[in-house]
Write a structure and sequence with these properties.
The chain has about 300 residues and is of the alpha/beta class. It has helices spanning about 15-25, 40-45, 60-65, 85-90, 105-120, 140-155, 180-185, 205, 225-235, 250-255, 275-280, 280-290, and strands at about 1-5, 30-35, 50-55, 70-75, 95, 135-140, 155-160, 170-175, 185-190, 215-220, 240-245, 260-265. The protein has 12 helices and 12 strands. The structure holds 3-phosphoglyceric acid. 3-phosphoglyceric acid binds next to loops.
């Protein structure tokens, strides 16, 4: 079987070697398409692939239509909003993710961004500390739980809201609504997936509940932010800061809030050697699918 690894944002070299070793040991072949710049390159490369490993690469109907032999796509990571899962299902193509693989890497970045934020982007002036502050975690999944663990070391008071998870967790105060979370916390860290339900849900009404001098951190997806409304709020509330690992469409507009807005130049949450190496799980999932038909991590059943 031919396994295409299509990563516009490549994995670390050691991780790629790990994937190759796994796939080849099972008797399959690996084809690499890294740092591609045009969608047409992906469309061309997928034509004779039996399986594909991707990151945030867009797997849209034109890609799936070109993929005459494709049986499985594994998104090495958690969020699979970049894949047209319904269309893949129509075509009988299994889509899987590798939940948890990037969770610690993303959670650590939250604190990298937060320290940078509370210290005024290292501008030489007195900032504040995280100790004793209230941290609100929106969605208590794999990343949220890692954020809670690290926050404890910083001496923060941790709150969480999750519409789908059980309420109780050691050291974390569960609140009853996202409105309550935003109104209670000094920092709100977003970990919801991008779904029709969450799209643009971080809007003026919700973010406007944040406390004085609050910080909003987004390491999830840009689609969850209502950008025009957040821009309006930041213009009204000159005390608020917005730190994001996903460049908003309105990046230039946000950048006007100097000292209150920061975006990583390229999405960095999962860009660690360790998280990339964990991506080897994707290779094992593909091997197991071809060996036994295993679809444990299928997300488009
Ligand atoms: C994920 O969903 O796992 C993260 O957002 C990582 O995305 P990336 O592969 O684009 O870095």
């Amino acid at each position: 079987m031919k396994v295409l690894v299509a990563t516009e944002k490549p994995f670390a070299a050691a991780a790629v070697n790990g994937i190759k070793a796994e796939i080849e040991a099972a008797g399959h072949e690996v084809v690499l398409l890294e740092k591609y710049t045009e969608k047409t390159q992906l469309v061309e490369a997928v034509k004779d692939a039996d399986a594909m490993i991707v990151r945030s690469d867009k797997v849209t109907p034109d890609v799936l239509d070109a993929a005459g032999k494709l049986k499985i796509v594994v998104r090495a990571g958690a969020g699979y909003d970049s894949i047209d899962t319904a269309y893949a299902k129509e075509k009988g193509i299994v889509v899987e993710n590798t939940p948890g693989q990037n969770a610690n890497a993303v959670a650590e970045l939250v604190f990298g961004m937060l320290v940078f934020g509370v210290r005024g982007f290292y501008n030489g002036k007195s900032g504040t500390e995280l100790k004793g502050k209230k941290l609100g975690i929106l969605a208590f999944g794999n990343v949220g739980r890692n954020v809670a663990r690290i926050a404890e070391g910083f001496g923060m008071e941790v709150y969480a809201y999750d519409a789908y998870c059980p309420k109780e967790s050691a050291g974390v105060k569960a609140v009853d609504s996202q409105e309550e979370l935003f109104a209670t916390c000094d920092v709100v860290s977003l970990h919801i997936p991008a779904t029709p339900e969450t799209k643009e849900s971080i809007n003026h009404a919700l973010a406007g509940r944040m406390k004085k001098n609050a910080i909003l951190v987004n390491t999830a997806r840009k689609e969850i932010i209502n950008e025009p409304e957040l821009l309006k709020l930041m213009a009204e509330r000159t005390d608020l800061k917005f730190l994001t690992d996903i460049k908003p469409d309105a990046d230039a507009e946000f950048a006007k809030f100097e000292g209150r807005y920061f975006s990583t130049p390229k999405k960095m949450g999962a860009q660690t050697a360790e998280a990339n190496t964990n991506a080897g799980i994707a290779a094992r999932q593909i091997n197991s699918f071809f060996a036994t038909g295993d679809t444990k991590f299928q997300v488009n059943k």
